[in-house]
């Protein structure tokens, strides 16, 4: 692997690790404290989606050699996620139904993008591509369910989001480990 590719993978693995850890923390909080008020859920989701957006912007800017022609899409997804997070923070009085729809559409967009990126971009290895597709499909399924069933009870919604965040966070951490393993010196 050349020096530029190693530098990009170096950025890729830690951005995925941070995204995964934040998702795990969000998921655990959502499952073990399902009764927080709408404002608490709103701020938890906002913090998660803003951090995810920042990591995607970093990946879009510095990871253009890995994601090749997909860098602009990754960058735009990050900007979208940051915008959704800021909107949610600035408008804490939005109804639960609106928050659920915003989260559902964000998951749909993210999932579609991850699946497209897996098939159109150059991923470092097959395991990373597989995890990206699985994460994308899960995002699409959860997003579609949320958008089609926005009136689902608040507790079930919080748990569904929590489980989703734990699964996707675990996949992001696995992808980060896979990317970091690419940095290991090759045996002679």
Structure write-up:
The radius of gyration is 17 Å and the shape is elongated. By secondary structure, it is mainly alpha-helical. The mean pLDDT is 80. Helix 1 runs antiparallel to helix 7, helix 5 (96-120) runs antiparallel to helix 6 and helix 6 (126-148) runs antiparallel to helix 7 (154-181). The two termini are 14 Å apart. The chain has one domain. Helix content is 82%, strand content 0%.
Tell me the layout of helices and strands.
Blueprint: H1 3-32, H2 38-62, H3 64-67, H4 71-90, H5 96-120, H6 126-148, H7 154-181
Helix pairs in contact: 1-2, 1-7, 2-4, 4-5, 5-6, 6-7
Annotation, overall tally of beta strands: 0
Detail the poorly predicted runs.
none
Query: What structural class results from the helix and strand content?
Result: mainly alpha
β-strand amount = under 5%
Mean pLDDT: 80
Element pattern in H and E: HHHHHHH
Give the helix tally.
Answer: 7
Radius of gyration over C-alpha positions, nearest whole angstrom: 17 Å
| Number of individual domains | 1
């Amino acid at each position: 692997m050349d020096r530029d590719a190693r530098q990009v993978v170096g950025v890729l693995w830690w951005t995925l690790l941070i995204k995964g850890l934040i998702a795990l923390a969000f998921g655990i909080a959502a499952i073990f404290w399902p009764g927080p008020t709408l404002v608490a859920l709103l701020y938890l989701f906002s913090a998660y989606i803003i951090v995810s957006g920042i990591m995607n912007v970093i990946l879009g800017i510095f990871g253009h050699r890995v994601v090749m022609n997909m860098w602009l899409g990754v960058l735009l997804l990050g900007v979208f996620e940051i915008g959704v997070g800021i909107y949610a923070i600035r408008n804490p009085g939005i109804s639960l139904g609106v928050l659920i729809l915003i989260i559902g559409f964000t998951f749909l967009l993210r999932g579609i993008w991850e699946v497209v990126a897996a098939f159109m971009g150059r991923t470092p290895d097959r395991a990373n591509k597989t995890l990206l597709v699985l994460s994308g499909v899960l995002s699409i399924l959860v997003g579609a369910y949320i958008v089609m069933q926005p009136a689902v009870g608040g507790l079930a919604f919080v748990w569904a989001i929590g489980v989703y965040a734990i699964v996707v966070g675990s996949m992001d951490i696995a992808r980060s480990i896979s990317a970091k393993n690419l940095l290991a010196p090759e045996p002679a």
